[in-house]
Fold this sequence. Notes:
The chain is α+β, with helices and mostly antiparallel strands. The chain is 42% helix and 23% strand. It contains 3 helices and 4 strands, in the order βαβαββα. It has helices at 11-27, 39-44, 69-80; strands at residues 2-6, 32-36, 52-55, 58-62. Strands 2-1-3-4 form a 4-stranded mixed sheet. α1 (11-27) packs across α3. The longest helix has 17 residues, at 11-27.
Amino acid sequence: MEIKILGSGCCNCDNLEEIAKKAVKELGIDANVVKVTDIGDIARHGILSTPGLIVNGKVKYSGKPLPSLDKVKELIKGELAKV
């Protein structure tokens, strides 16, 4: 599973990255969490408001307020069910 955090590197982006890493750890899954800061790459995903959360190529969340740990786990589990 691939999880991307899209954002410029602001504290909200950093916080979402930490939430995603914690969610992966708590779920006990094998996932690669990647931070994407390139504006061109972010735009190609159609994200207009950062931070963004992409799970297996699908936009799951963007903007503020940040999703909770439980919400991120729920979004990830939703993609696990499709595999």
